[in-house]
Amino acid sequence: MSAALATADTLGAALARGRTALRDAGIEPAALDARLLVAAAAGVPVETVIAYPERALPPGAAERLQSWLARRLAREPMAYILGRREFWSLDFVVTPATLTPRPDSETLVAAVLERIGDHQAPRRLLDFGTGTGCLLLALLSELPAASGIGVDSSDAALAVARGNAETLGLATRAVFVRGDWGAGLAGMFDIIISNPPYIATHQLAALPPEVRHEPQPALDGGADGLAAYRRLMSDVARLLARGGIAALEVGDGQAADVEALGVAAGLGVAGRVTDLAGIERCVLLRTKS
Ligand SMILES: C[S@@+](CC[C@H](N)C(=O)[O-])C[C@H]1O[C@@H](n2cnc3c(N)ncnc32)[C@H](O)[C@@H]1O
What is the pLDDT of residue 289? Predict the structure, then answer.
């Protein structure tokens, strides 16, 4: 690969060689990944790579691309190499300290927006395990009078979330604090959201290689995958305002168990939401009337 890329002097040649290198290694979607890497390495929009293959690579682009392809061939996620990922049509900085926002998690954002009334009303939001801040910031982008707190145990993730809030123009309405779920937190919140780690420990080794690059505390849900829900459910029950809603992302097959944990903590069940693949992805809980 190295020699071939070193001789690639146009966008088209770099694209063809990058695509072949990825495809030969069995990495899919090779064409899309190669296109995104060439565009980012050359500092041009993806459309330019497709429309102007004869264009010369700018200085330094071949070397950048070579190093990024090597990372991709080592199965590093595209989001870590590019340093960003789109979520809810917003651009998020992503680092190896944060989980890469998943399209599935947009289910939770949509579910909350569908179930609350007036989107212009002032509301207080709380996000447990905020990571990049994607869930909280996506909701704040849709709720102009709302404000929120994002909690995470990782200082490095919190720094990323703060940067994302700044870039998205939401920093005046979002605070990010270090915490162990709700320990030490006081106040009442109208909307509590969380995408906690929910992979059972024994399943971690079988995850795709890309996922294994992600931080273990963002993935590891303990022996049965439910450890984080057990810990945070009493905080949800304590901090959810009357009439409020809690939306928790769950793994495949976990919805009933998570609902049961909510009921045991004194909450009421308010429904389940499936993602685009038909998997129950989000459990909704409310205060008991
Ligand atoms: C699955 S990731 C979700 C990140 C982000 N909300 C998203 O949906 O992309 C779970 C997050 O929970 C955080 N976390 C793990 N244990 C925690 C704890 N005890 N207290 C607070 N956050 C924790 C991790 O650092 C990680 O950022």
Answer: 73
Q: Which CATH architecture has domain 88-287?
A: 3-Layer(aba) Sandwich (3.40)
pLDDT for 7:
62
Q: Where are the domains of the chain?
A: 2-74, 88-287
181 lines ligand 1 (CB under 6 A): yes
Neighbour tally for 25: CB within 10 Å: 15
In short, whether 214's Cβ falls inside 6 Å of ligand 1 is: no
- The reported pLDDT for the residue numbered 59 is 94
Global pTM value = 0.95
* Spatial distance between the Cα atoms of 148 and 122, rounded to a whole number of angstroms: 11
| Under 8 Å between Cβ of 286 and 244 | yes
Cα–Cα distance measured from residue 13 to residue 240, given in angstroms and rounded to the nearest whole number = 56
Query: Which stretches in the chain have pLDDT values below 70?
Result: 1-7
Distance CA 178, CA 38 (A): 37
